[in-house]
Design a protein that fits this description.
The protein is about 75% helix and about 0% strand. The chain is globular. The chain contains eleven helices and no strands. By secondary structure, the protein is mainly alpha-helical. The relative contact order is 0.15.
Length: about 290
């Protein structure tokens, strides 16, 4: 694994794009208990917001190759960010659950397009150094996650009825990044005559995919429901519980920025097994704990 790489303009623009969508994830996920209270729905109905985000991610996975083929990776990121901004605006101005669900679907689709394209574009741009570049870009994205959780939670503590307005901060950030980040590519993207890349995946891919799905599932379950769990277990308010989830994003950021460097002497398979074991242990401790400190 390369020890370092040059964090160029491409790195910071791409990392900023993912930080913006993670700002939304950091604020929206832990705020599920706030949203549920606002809409007066059951846990099942409130959980549908997470379900539609999952559906949006699957749809984005199918759409990504076609967007990249037709428009190129660079434009695909901006398309995803635009879809995200439209969906987020609709979510903020649409209080009823019948409207927040489709708005969340649209927002989630844009989020996944941005993240998926970030991974492929960084892998293409940095080559072997992508092993360091991608985790560190994800570390920057985690900073956005922490800011989203902290800001939305703080607004909920001070002004309970206006927590959604905190999500609006992502919209001017989108505009700023678009103004500063859009550059005229020297070569216009020309779609390949053979169409989007295709082919069958190996058994190793599907085994890895299964483990990846399990890890992401626990991450989103923790992000979406940890605030509600804290509220039930320790008796904290929905607002305080939301703020407490800053710890989740902080841990994600530290692990993403320094994890690859700290474990660079281990084989990739050993790194994966160690981190899955750590994640499993931490999740069990969190699930069984009845103390805010744990």
């Amino acid at each position: 694994m390369p020890k370092n790489f040059k964090r160029d303009r491409f790195f910071w623009i791409t990392a900023s794009q993912t930080a913006i969508v993670n700002f939304y994830l950091g604020g929206f996920g832990p705020a599920q208990s706030l949203l549920r209270a606002d809409q007066g729905t059951s846990l099942t109905i409130a959980g549908l917001h997470g379900t539609v985000m999952g559906i949006a991610s699957i749809a984005a996975g199918y759409a990504n190759p076609h967007l990249a083929h037709k428009y190129g990776r660079s434009k695909s990121k901006w398309i995803g960010l635009t879809i995200f901004a439209v969906g987020l605006f609709l979510f903020i101005v649409s209080p009823p659950v019948a409207l927040t669900l489709p708005a969340t679907l649209l927002t989630g689709f844009g989020v996944s397009i941005v993240i998926n394209t970030m991974l492929t574009s960084m892998s293409h741009h940095y080559g072997k150094a992508a092993e360091v570049a991608i985790p560190q870009a994800n570390g920057v994205a985690s900073f956005g996650f922490v800011c989203g959780t902290a800001i939305i939670g703080t607004i909920a503590v001070l002004y309970r009825d206006f927590w959604r307005l905190g999500l609006l901060l992502a919209l001017p950030a989108v505009v700023i990044v678009m103004i500063l980040g859009r550059d005229n590519e020297k070569e216009e993207h020309v779609p390949d005559d053979s169409g989007p890349q295709s082919g069958k995946m190996s058994l190793k891919f599907w085994l890895t995919w299964f483990g990846f799905v399990a890890c992401i599932s626990s991450e989103f379950a923790t992000s979406f429901w940890s605030a509600a769990l804290l509220k039930d277990r320790v008796g904290s308010t929905a607002a305080i519980s939301t703020v407490a989830i800053v710890a989740l994003g902080t841990g994600m950021g530290i692990g993403r920025w320094y994890g690859g460097l700290a474990l660079k002497n281990l084989k990739l398979d050993s790194q994966l097994l160690l981190l899955i074991a750590l994640q499993f242990f931490s999740f069990i401790v969190f699930w069984l704990s009845h103390s805010m400190l744990l």
